[in-house]
Amino acid sequence: MTRGELQRGKGAEIFLGRLPRDCYEDELMPMLEQVGRLLELRLMLDFSGSTRGYAFALFADPRVARKACARLDGYEIRPGHRIGVVKSMDNCRLFFGGVPKTKTKSEFLAELTKILDGITDIYLYPSAHDRSLNRGFIFVEFKDHRAAAMARRKLIPGRVMLWDHEIAVDWADPEPGDPIDEDVMETVTALFVRNLALDISQQKVREIFHRHTNVPILKLKKINHFAFIHYENRESAATVMDIMQKPNSIIEKEGWEIRWAKPIGASKILERQRYIREAVAKSDEQGIETPRPKRGQRKKHCVLHKSPVKVQEDDNNVSLAQMRVLQNFVREKYDAVCDFDCVPISDMSKYVGRIIIRKYQTILLEVQGEPMASKHEAMSAASVNVYQYLMNTLPNSAQPFEQHYIHPTAGVNPVIGAPIAWYPEIAQN
Q1: I need a labelling partner for 294 at 20 to 30 A (CA). Which of 282, 301, 361, 383 fits?
Q2: Which positions fall inside the RRM domain (predicted)?
Q3: Which residues of 46-164 form beta strands (DSSP E)?
């Protein structure tokens, strides 16, 4: 069911799951319209006329969609029946494999627009050995998810032939990493550029961007075929993005791809932390097994304490990030604040984190975490413990893949923790 002329904004669609099989538009639309302007509701039906238990709803803009997820996820649509609401994947890109390697972007665009509607761009990657050839696959971007789905449906049933080549077509894999909130993305000041030649230097990329945009670059890092370019503020980065996306820009001529860089999520920080720890442990083992120097040879001293310092700094960053996530979550959901404390136990060899959630002068929750080897690990474990407890026990709380996203550190069980006391009747006031 649609209303008026549709302007489908990316990120404005939500997925509704766990719906009753006899739940239809007359029950769903009033619920959805309480959140904001509803443009479209797609309810999936089976051959008997019953619903399949899920639907898609399109709102006027992504902000309303985020609001709908926060308000309706876990909503009790009928007595004892709660529904699940999350952001729709909104995939607008298809993968075409087995394409002729001699064809160019303009040739693909001309050929595919003859049979498919809604194509907005084609991403083609040149071969690392011969840039006059592509790598044998392309990505085709469509104006919205529906256009991509219709194209896939048209191409899937039989064999797809392009220039006498049989082509494989499927959804492009979503980009890895944590989902990033649109509000966060609007503050990003760095650009991500890929499809660069392997032999082009970092300094050369810097010179090209500065020459074509005349915008000072704060920092640039090139890794293999891609680069991250940081600017002083959002306005400067947006200016560069606008210039580089114009027709006949250096980006288009070189076949590069440019987009906003994604901030590192909590899971990526923890993954880095794990890699650093493994590297330090390996270095320590190698340090123990290092053979003694030969007589007359000057002994080289290795300062092994520098790596653990780096790990300690990384631990600190992770624990602070987790404490900040918990604080924001508690403030938004319960209009309360968190008090954090870390105290040594026994012979000062271990620490425990203590967290108190209070609303004005009333204590809502008191938690004491498990003993940990460092203060940062203790606060990290306690923060994860409290966050997971609130998520798993309280109704209508955000899901892990929503706005507040947090991962437990290695070796920490967020379910097992020491005494937890929660007073829900106070929190709801």
Answers
A1: 282
A2: 12-90, 92-174, 189-283
A3: 51-59, 76-78, 81-82, 84-87, 93-97, 119-126, 134-142, 160-162
| CATH code for the part of the protein at 13-87 | 3.30.70.330
User: In this predicted model, what pLDDT tens digit does every residue of 162-206 receive, in sequence order?
Assistant: 888 888 888 887 654 445 566 677 788 999 998 888 888 999 999
Beta bridge partner(s), residue 87: 14
User: Which residue type is seen at 320?
Assistant: L
Q: Using the structure block, give the residue that is written with the tokens 């590069």.
A: 256
CATH of 320-391, one of 3.40.50.10380, 3.30.160.20, 3.40.50.12780, 3.90.1680.10: 3.30.160.20
β-bridge mates for residue 85, sequence order: 16
User: pLDDT tens digits for 143-162?
Assistant: 888 888 888 888 875 567 78
Choose which CATH entry (3.40.50.1360, 3.90.180.10, 3.30.70.330, 3.90.76.10) describes domain 182-260.
3.30.70.330
Q: Kindly report the number of other CB atoms within 10 A of residue 186's CB atom.
A: 9
- Using only C-alpha atoms, what is the Rg of the chain? 27
Contact between 229 and 251 (Cβ < 8 Å):
no
Whether domain 93-171 has CATH 1.10.3720.10: the reply is: no
Q: Which helix (H) or strand (E) holds 227?
A: strand 226-230
CA pair distance 72, 82, nearest whole angstrom: 9
User: And the tokens for 21?
Assistant: 């099989």
